Amino acid sequence: MESTKETAAPEGPILCINNCGFFGSAATMNMCSKCHKEMILKQENAKLAADIINGGSGKDVVAADVIKTAQSAAVELNVALIQAPHTDGSSSTQVPEAKVGPNRCSTCRKRVGLTGFNCKCGNLFCSVHRYSDKHECPFDYRSAGRDAIAKANPVVKAEKLDKI
Prior knowledge:
about 160 residues, mainly alpha, two-stranded antiparallel sheet, flat
């Protein structure tokens, strides 16, 4: 009976042992999924570093450099996300965010919302003006079609045969 008590799940959720505020589980050593992934990544990096120190090939060194640069970029991104902007009001370097207005047709200025059509010329149009002949589109469909056909069908030339 004692063995059943030991394997029974604890009552209530368990907080992550890294005190990140999320819940952990016994499968991830009482860590949340994010902390568990970070721990596994650190262990893999340590193994990789040990292999390099003990005499690894050049490929391993290049792979380790790529992993280190990726991790440093991820750390910088996390630091940037964690740091909150100061709301003192004295800082004039903050740029106010531009208001995003409703989507409107470029020709008739009608509100299109989610039903707008993006043209190859880069503008947004309503259902009436979505075709290129209805809004005087400056995009050259003829040359774009020619280029697409030229790319899809490359010129194939056979080698000349020697005449007997």
